[in-house]
Give the backbone structure.
Amino acid sequence: MARPTASSRPAEKEPGRFRQLWQVFQMTRRLDKRAIPYLILVFVLPILVAIGVGIFTAEGNGFVIAIWIVAGVLLGLLLFLIVLGRRAERAAYGQIAGQPGAVGAVLRSSLRRGWRGNEMPVAVNPKTQDAIYRAVGRPGVVLIAEGPKSRTNRMLEEERRKVGRVLPNVPVSTLHVGPDAGSVELHRINRSLGKFKRTLTRAEVVAVSNRLSSLSGNQLPIPKGIDPLRVRPQRMR
């Protein structure tokens, strides 16, 4: 009787959703000590509110009270999953904060729809590993500096001038991700991008992105540090 070869063995299955959820919860609990109280609060509070509303409005009707309780449990579970996802993402990015290439990891793995970015920087200081990244969306071009402002301001202005010469009518904004006061934290990059005023259409976003990509030529290497392709906060599917 022939033995099954490696190719004939069944492929290893990916973990199911409940297992993924448990893994995300364990990771978040380990990295974020404040996550548990938040998760308990957002799960229990809707249930308590639903019970109270059911008691005061059902006039002793047990069926109506039960419906309110079920609704409270479902709402609590939904809020639990939302908060867990956000705390997990924040905890994961907290592990890579301050490392070269961290901004590239964010742009590669969690850039919102409508934005076009790349994990490859458009400018790098080989000595300090400070870098400038670029994202293109409906607000225009956003240059994101990774490193202290004292070292990245000059790089940022040089890159702004380059973009301005090529696309003089496209708004160019900047963000700083680093140790300085007022800098943007990794997990808030998407939120900060969403605050800029929209001025371009979707078609113009594609055209601007393609124009900049064609001019970039050979892209610069990722700063030595983390591998953005391997650093992705886990998300519930």
Notes: The mean pLDDT is 82. The chain has seven helices and five strands.
